[in-house]
Amino acid sequence: MTAFFEGIQYLFVNILFAPLDFLRRLELITWFGANTINWIFMIICSVAIVYWIKQLRIFDDAGTENQDTTAHSFLK
User: Is the full-model pTM beyond 0.90?
Assistant: First the structure.
């Protein structure tokens, strides 16, 4: 049974966390390089939010959105 848990430890520590160890070492060299992934995620989220708001405005201007309080059965 010990070998099973040591196998799980090896999987997580040596394989799955290897990219995080790389980022930890990279942070000592360059902060911007280590946080590139965060910047990419922030850009993707910003673009998604702008697209979402644009779509909401399109439906609101067209008047196709049902704003009746009884649109859902659980609001009755």
Answer: no
